[in-house]
Amino acid sequence: MNFNIQDEEIDSTTHVIELGGEVDLYTAPEFKERLVQLIESGKTQIVVDLSQATFIDSTTLGVLVGGVKRLRPAGGSLALVCSDQNITKIFEITGLDRVFGIHETRDEALASVAQSEH
Predict the structure, then answer these.
(1) What's the pLDDT at 95?
(2) Could you tell me which of 59, 57, 58, 98 has the C-alpha nearest to residue 80?
(3) What integer pLDDT is reported at residue 100 of this predicted model?
(4) Is residue 40 within 8 Å of residue 8, measured between CB atoms?
(5) pTM over cut 0.90
(6) Which of 45, 61, 65, 59 is nearest to 110 (CA)?
(7) Is residue 47 within 8 Å of 113, Cβ to Cβ?
(8) Would you state the pLDDT for residue 116?
(9) pLDDT by residue (tens digit) across 61-101?
(10) What CATH topology corresponds to 3-113?
(11) Of 116, 17, 4, nearest to 67 (Cα)?
């Protein structure tokens, strides 16, 4: 199975999770576990980098929505990095492009979550 997950701590409140390959029913639980761990450890600004992802499904969307719901009470935010038109289209079709900030680059996404802190 082609899936990998990498983390990068930016600072005490900001974290990047990079997902690669296929993020689906079988691999999304690992992503969810990591996301929940980060939020519970105090991270409030999370960037999920999908630039290396080749496929996502509804399970992945559910994990992302759950992440936003966990972050909102703490005033946190979640932004996405995605330049793949096929994946971006999934967010547009489901209306989730209005829930998540979707950015072309990691730098843009980090800038957007940094702004939401203030």
Answers:
(1) 97
(2) 98
(3) 93
(4) no
(5) yes
(6) 45
(7) yes
(8) 78
(9) 999 999 999 999 989 999 999 999 999 999 999 999 999 99
(10) Transcription Regulator spoIIAA (3.30.750)
(11) 17
Nearest alpha-carbon partner for 2 in 16, 32, 31, 23: 23
- DSSP labels for the chain? --EEEEEEE-SSSEEEEEEEEEESTTTHHHHHHHHHHHHHTT--EEEEEEEEEEEE-HHHHHHHHHHHHHHGGGT-EEEEE---HHHHHHHHHHTGGGTSEEESSHHHHHHHHHHHT-
Q: Are 2 and 54 in contact (CB under 8 A)?
A: yes
Angle at 87 between CA 70 and CA 73, to 5 degrees: 10
Q: How many residues does the chain have?
A: 118
Yes or no: say if 21 and 52 are a contact pair by the CB < 8 Å rule. Answer: yes
Integer Cα distance of 27 and 104 in angstroms: 24
Tell me the average pLDDT of the chain. 95
